[in-house]
């Protein structure tokens, strides 16, 4: 009886956490759309979304200016922040599970820098690949992210045959520094592209529009589904590769699937929003503190919480010094860097 009671309590607790996470997400989306230079009542937002996206309801009582602001500017902005935050958070959660280290995320492993180099090269040379059109930027960013992962793992294997997690993370930081200098060189050589590149590198979801939603959405859906389908395998690999092999997990295959899916999510997110650090570090750490280490719950809750976090961070970035805006990457770094230091100190103490 006591074990049955505990099991039911844990199941109810998990569903309460999901409900709370969804509630926070919906609230952050509504507040993110509502607050700005022009405040839009939440009831008007619901009418506009219902009419424009679902073909139901009426907007006759809504100010036409509010309708234009919501549908053309703020709704795509908060949805893009949601997709980017969710992508980075689930990628970070999967890398931390795969490498069994809370310090692993797209930023520390060098993936964000690799994706940034791919995006900056695309902007610098104004590259447009045949048949890809708008998808040129995310595809090249994803290629940059994947190449960086391959180089980091290859270099780490040369340094340490056992591929210790600390070696992989240190190698990722080295590559991030090197790729950062490559980006700086391109900035120094750029002319008219300078403002666009610097503005993009600082991280922002401002004035992106619906096109950017359609660019990132297929990569987000594909990467997220692959990681979700590998959640049980991540649970197995979190105990070590040897133990995972003993219970029948194809470690090499699953490892590559997780790395490719995470790189796809990172590359697509960086392509549409620029470099936004620490989301993949902070959110999974926070989720694990609340719900434990089961990736069947850690991954979906990271998607929900990562999206809500970046929507709120974007809201702060555009209101804290209104009418000017701070880059969203500044807000996430101010929050994430102290947490990164705390995790590092705690891990060293352990």
Describe this structure in words.
It is globular and about 65 Å long. It starts with a helix and ends with a helix. Helices cover 77% and strands 0% of the residues. It has 14 helices and no strands. With 350 residues, it is mostly helical. It has helices at 2-34, 42-54, 64-99, 111-125, 136-159, 165-189, 194-201, 210-229, 231-237, 241-246, 251-273, 279-291, 295-319, 328-349.
Q: What attributes does this structure have?
A:
single chain, mainly alpha, globular, 77% helix
Write the topology of this structure:
Elements: H1 2-34, H2 42-54, H3 64-99, H4 111-125, H5 136-159, H6 165-189, H7 194-201, H8 210-229, H9 231-237, H10 241-246, H11 251-273, H12 279-291, H13 295-319, H14 328-349
Helix pairs in contact: 1-3, 1-13, 2-3, 3-8, 3-9, 3-11, 3-12, 3-13, 4-5, 4-6, 4-11, 5-6, 5-11, 8-11, 12-13, 13-14
Count of discrete alpha- or pi-helical segments spanning 4 or more residues: 14
**Which sheet architecture does the biggest sheet show?**
none
Global Rg: 21 Å
Percent of residues in helices comes to over 70%
Mean pLDDT: 86
Number of strands: 0
| Low-confidence regions | none
Alpha-beta classification: mainly alpha
SSE string, helix = H, strand = E?
HHHHHHHHHHHHHH
N-to-C CA distance: 36 Å
Query: Which outline best applies?
Result: globular
Strand residues, percent: under 5%
């Amino acid at each position: 009886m006591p074990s049955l009671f505990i099991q039911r309590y844990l199941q109810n607790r998990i569903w309460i956490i999901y409900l709370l996470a969804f509630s926070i997400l919906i609230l952050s989306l509504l507040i993110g759309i509502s607050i700005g230079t022009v405040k839009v009542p939440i009831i008007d937002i619901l009418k506009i979304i219902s009419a424009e996206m679902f073909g139901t309801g009426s907007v006759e009582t809504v100010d036409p200016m509010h309708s234009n602001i919501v549908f053309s500017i703020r709704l795509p902005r908060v949805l893009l922040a949601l997709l980017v935050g969710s992508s980075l958070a689930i990628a970070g959660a999967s890398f931390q599970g795969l490498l069994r280290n809370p310090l692993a995320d797209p930023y520390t492993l060098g993936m964000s820098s690799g994706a940034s180099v791919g995006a900056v090269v695309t902007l610098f040379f104004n590259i447009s690949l045949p048949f890809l059109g708008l998808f040129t930027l995310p595809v090249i960013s994803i290629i940059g992210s994947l190449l960086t992962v391959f180089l980091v793992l290859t270099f780490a294997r040369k340094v340490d045959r056992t591929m210790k997690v600390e070696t992989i993370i240190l190698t990722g930081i080295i590559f991030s520094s090197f790729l950062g200098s490559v980006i700086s060189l391109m900035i120094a050589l750029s002319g008219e592209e300078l403002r666009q590149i610097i503005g993009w590198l600082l991280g922002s979801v401002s004035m992106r529009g619906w096109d950017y939603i359609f660019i990132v959405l297929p990569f987000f859906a594909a990467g997220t589904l692959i990681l979700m389908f590998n959640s049980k395998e991540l649970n197995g690999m979190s105990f070590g590769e040897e133990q995972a092999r003993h219970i029948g997990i194809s470690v090499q295959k699953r490892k590559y699937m997780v790395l490719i899916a995470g790189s796809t999510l990172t590359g697509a997110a960086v392509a549409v929003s620029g470099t936004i650090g620490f989301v993949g570090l902070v959110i999974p750490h926070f989720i694990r503190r609340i719900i434990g280490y089961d990736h069947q719950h850690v991954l979906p809750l990271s998607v929900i919480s990562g999206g809500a976090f970046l929507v709120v961070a974007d809201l702060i970035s555009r209101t804290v010094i209104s009418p000017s805006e701070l880059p969203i990457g500044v807000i996430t770094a101010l929050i994430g860097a102290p947490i990164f230091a705390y995790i590092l100190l705690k891990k060293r103490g352990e």
